[in-house]
Design goal:
Layout lengths: L1 H11 L24 H6 L18 H21 L4 H24 L13 H11 L31
């Protein structure tokens, strides 16, 4: 019991008990909103990207999928942020966010292992789950960071006709 207590105490104060926790990707991205749209558009070059070199040569498949989703949505946001009309810009960003999470969940189910818990939901419940888990809801930049250009493997085409 004492050893278990020491392990829990070590973990609670940030100890790793000698295990390499590996690469970490803050995920999921927050849902675009009127409140975070300005930062989403103006601070994109100061939020992390995750090139393949960020990850070890093998393993960490879940984190790789998270990194790919972040890379994709940040790239797609740059398309949306170039739209002139504010309401259209937000609509586009929301479409990009929803689409990237749909693709992410499809990829999660395409491999062995447990999918992200939000992927087990569907429709609005899935999106709400991802929104609740977003670690950077206001899209604040990472200090002293300049985003790398990371090639994106999937195109995004927003549909302005769906915007009200």
């Amino acid at each position: 019991m004492f050893i278990f207590g020491v392990m829990l105490a070590s973990m609670a104060i940030g100890g790793s008990l000698g295990y390499d926790s590996g690469p970490f990707v803050p995920f999921p991205p927050a849902q675009p909103s009127q409140e975070n749209l300005d930062a989403l558009c103006t601070q994109g070059g100061s939020r992390p990207r995750y090139p393949s070199s960020f990850f070890p040569k093998s393993g960490y498949g879940h984190m790789r999928r998270c990194g790919s989703a972040v890379n994709r949505v940040e790239s797609w946001y740059s398309v949306c942020c170039a739209v002139e009309k504010e309401s259209q810009k937000l609509c586009c960003a929301k479409q990009a966010w929803e689409y990237v999470l749909k693709v992410f969940c499809r990829e999660e189910y395409g491999v062995k292992g447990l999918p992200h818990e939000c992927c087990e939901e569907s429709g609005a419940s899935r999106l709400s789950c991802f929104e609740r888990e977003a670690p950077n809801a206001s899209y604040q930049p990472t200090p002293d960071y300049t985003a790398l250009e990371v090639p994106v493997d999937l195109e995004f085409a927003w549909d302005p006709k769906t915007c009200g």
